[in-house]
Amino acid sequence: MGEFISITGSNGAAKSTLLKLMLGLIKPWRGSIQFNHVLSDGTKATVGYVPQQVASFNAGFPSKVIELVRSGCYSELGLFRRFTSRHEHIVERSLKQVDMWEYRNRKIGELSGGQKYMWGMFRKKAMADNK
Questions:
Q1: Phi, psi at residue 62, to the nearest 5°?
Q2: 0.90 cut: is pTM over it?
Q3: pLDDT tens for the chain, residues 1 to 131
Q4: How far is residue 80's CA from residue 57's CA, in Å, rounded to a whole number?
Q5: Which helix (H) or strand (E) holds 114?
Q6: CA dist., res. 48 & res. 50, Å (int)
Q7: Are the CB atoms for 66 and 91 separated by under 8 Å?
């Protein structure tokens, strides 16, 4: 099933910078970053990053919560395969775990900042559960 790990610290402590470096989104000014992408059991590590700005997601964006959480499964499906009952179960379970199931048919722009953040977190969870 995987696990969630959080990084905490005071403002300006470089938490976001550390994650961006680990994911290869930015390059270090000097030195190097090494991140082991293979777990002890031999499977590939899946890392999800939800940026702080997710709460400012475009309020006019037309997609519903459930559609965007489903997109967490697209990497396995590819372009032409359809969702199975297993995928729907993953999405439903992910939303129910954070009490967001009742908001599944709301447009992203209708959510509060905290709810948008939860949507981002559990889109990543659906991606991890889908592996």
A1: -80, -10
A2: no
A3: 566 677 777 777 888 788 888 877 788 888 888 877 787 888 877 776 666 665 555 667 778 888 888 877 777 776 677 888 888 898 898 888 878 899 899 887 787 777 776 666 666 666 566 55
A4: 28
A5: helix 113-129
A6: 7
A7: yes
Q: What is the dihedral of CA 22, 6, 93, 126, to 10 degrees?
A: -10
| Cross-strand pairs, 107 | 64
Residue 112 Ramachandran class (φ > 0 left, ψ -120 to 50 alpha, else beta): beta
Which residues have a Cβ under 8 Å from the Cβ of 108 and sit 6 or more positions away?
Answer: 57, 58, 61, 63, 64, 65, 68, 116, 119
Phi-psi map region of 35: left, alpha, beta (phi>0 left; psi -120 to 50 alpha): beta
Amino acid at 69: V
- For residues 78 and 13, what is the distance between their CA atoms, to the nearest angstrom? 38
Q: How many residues does the chain have?
A: 131
Supply the DSSP string of 10-25, one letter for each residue: -TTS-HHHHHHHHTTS
